[in-house]
Specification:
Layout (H helix, E strand, L loop, with lengths): L3 E9 L3 E6 L2 E6 L2 H6 L5 E10 L4 E6 L2 H11 L6 H10 L2 H9 L3 H5 L6 H18 L4 H4 L1 H16 L4 H14 L5 H11 L1
Antiparallel strand pairs: 1-2, 1-4, 2-3, 4-5
Length: 194
């Protein structure tokens, strides 16, 4: 398999790049994230994935190894082909994809053109464990709502005269015990326990 190509950038477009390496021009399908990260520098290195089908050998290019690994994980899911995976990588950053999968955010995945409810659920079911293991992300750190509520509760309690160190672990414990708790309830519970 071709793992990367390093050479002179001949042409770049939001959907592809052409790199010349030792007199051979390679056509690489790329995501918008890779397109925006490619500078117009003469020498360019793109990590690659070669997709082999009966009727075509298609080369995909990625700005970094993480993007390539996310692409490989996505195409391993039944119903997600290379084109859909590339659209997903164009619509979301690799971090957003990891967060969406690890925090069961089907709405974020469904927001990508061509992905329906069943496919979004399949992506989460198939990849959640791999994402959590491979990228060592804790589930708690992924829930944006919890982080927002936690930060707002911290701010409110700091305004009331408590230090961040005094209340941070308590707030985290309250959120873990009752995941769907409101900001107001967190503050009330925290005040009772302080």
């Amino acid at each position: 398999m071709i793992t990367h190509i390093k050479g002179k950038l001949i042409e770049k477009n939001p959907t592809y790049a052409i790199i010349e390496c030792n007199g051979v021009g390679y056509f690489l399908n790329i995501s918008l994230n890779t397109f925006s990260a490619i500078s117009d520098a003469e020498n360019l290195l793109l990590y690659t994935h070669l997709n082999v089908r009966e009727d075509a050998h298609t080369l995909y290019g990625f700005i970094n190894k993480l993007e390539r690994e996310i692409f490989k994980l996505l195409i391993s899911v039944s119903g997600v082909g290379p084109s859909t995976a590339r659209v997903m990588l164009s619509s979301m950053t690799t971090e957003q994809i990891q967060h969406a999968i690890a925090s069961n955010d089907t709405a974020a995945i469904q927001s990508v053109k061509g992905i329906g409810a069943k496919t979004a659920q399949r992506v989460i079911i198939d990849l959640k464990d791999k994402i959590l293991k491979t990228y060592s992300i804790s589930e708690d750190s992924l829930d944006y709502n919890h982080n927002t509520i936690k930060n707002e509760a911290l701010s409110a309690l700091e305004v009331l005269g408590y230090t961040k160190r005094q209340v941070e672990k308590l707030i985290q414990k309250i959120i873990q015990e009752t995941p769907n708790i409101t900001l107001e309830e967190i503050i009330k519970k925290a005040l009772k326990n302080l």
